[in-house]
Amino acid sequence: MGRHPVLGLGLGLGLGPVIADASALAEVTAAFAAGSGPVAVDAERASGYRYGQRAYLVQLRRAGAGTALIDPVACPDLSGLGAALSDVEWVLHAATQDLPCLREIGMVPTRIFDTELAGRLAGFPRVGLGAMVENVLGFVLEKGHSAVDWSTRPLPEPWLRYAALDVELLVDLRDALEKELDRQGKLEWARQEFDAIASAPPAEPRKDPWRRTSGMHKVRRRRQLAVVRELWETRDRIAQRRDVSPGKVLADAAIVEAALALPPNAHALAALHGFGRINRRQLEQWQAAVDRVRGLSESQLPQPGQPVTGPPPPRAWADKDPAAAARLSAARAAVTALAERLNMPQENLITPDTVRRVCWEPPATVDAESVGAALAGHGARPWQVEQVTPALVAALDQGVS
């Protein structure tokens, strides 16, 4: 088999300077408004380096306008550009990752085409951008700067070339995937998925985000949980003030160590894994957080576990409700078989959470109408309801019998 050509920049109109002032942004906005066809959009964040998920570079490409790289730190309000492109289809790869940081700077699409999701629905085993470009278009993307600190200024030229490649072939990939989805009879399904993403409201802030600290399963007692909460919240304030990733301030593993040990003083804290290299002033700060927890009354301590909404974990079903466990087993088998037949991942056919909820509390009368309504009530799209309902009706009947 012949070697695929390696794609470096230069297929299109080349790469101009990064857009970093109002006049250059106005020119780009006019050029992209006058372009034709869909617009490829991508954003680079500085996850692991900076606090939060803001965009530090925005890349766009559109026929007739070429490629533009925009610095959203220098140009924090891109709502004018977003408005100029509001009626245009935006092509993104893994849209749900980029849409929140684009929304923050005023760029909100009304129509999207997600090439990663399209790849999943079409049954591609590898859906990363590089793999998709290679398998669908036959090009190898030059890679190598994906995990860099995009908040760096000025951004090095090789990084900018790398970033521009991410939008260079996105519209070509979109066109090829549209044809493939159409060939498989899945194009309407994809459109419903894209519409659901574009119209979804911004995510609600997580309740008790400290509970997601890695290693939390080791922490059992309520006062220890309170130490995790106090250290997590202290770390978050410091990280936000310094604009660095929380993990660079203090590791999750160190938080859990301190919670389990409940050290009586800074000397004892310094002996714990993750605290040995911290200077005296910072040690005192972390110890003060531990000491604050010592002063809390029982009623001020957090409860173990979060209040559970929805069904219990499936492993508990056999004891709590054997009939529901039988329904779930039958439903999972039916969904697996259907996903294999349709050549797509099960979670894209229907979310596991939706299957669990319908199996735990099925409609009083199990038929196509009631099961379809239950699926739709949990957010399933019309195409999913149409495909999954017959399989679930049979499974729910089987689970009852």
How is this structure best described in words?
The chain is an alpha/beta fold and 401 residues long. It contains 19 helices and seven strands. It has helices at 22-34, 79-84, 95-104, 115-121, 129-137, 157-168, 170-183, 187-199, 222-242, 246-249, 252-261, 266-270, 280-294, 317-320, 322-342, 346-349, 352-360, 368-377, 382-400; strands at residues 6-7, 36-45, 55-63, 66-70, 89-92, 111-114, 140-141. α9 (222-242) packs across α13 (280-294) and α15 (322-342) packs across α19. Residues 9-13 have low confidence and may be disordered.
Question: Which features would summarize this protein structure in a list?
Answer:
401 residues, alpha/beta, two-stranded parallel ribbon
In short:
The chain has 401 residues and is an alpha/beta fold. It contains 19 helices and seven strands. It is flat, with a radius of gyration of 25 Å.
Number of helices: 19
The helix fraction, in percent, is: 40-55%
Q: SSE string, helix = H, strand = E?
A: EHEEEHEHEHHEHHHHHHHHHHHHHH
Strand order of the largest sheet: 4-3-2-5-6
**Share in β-strands:** 5-15%
Derived from helix and strand composition plus strand pairing, the structural class reads alpha/beta
How many strand segments? 7
Query: What are the low-pLDDT stretches, counting only 5+ consecutive residues below 50?
Result: 9-13
Largest sheet: 5 strands, mixed
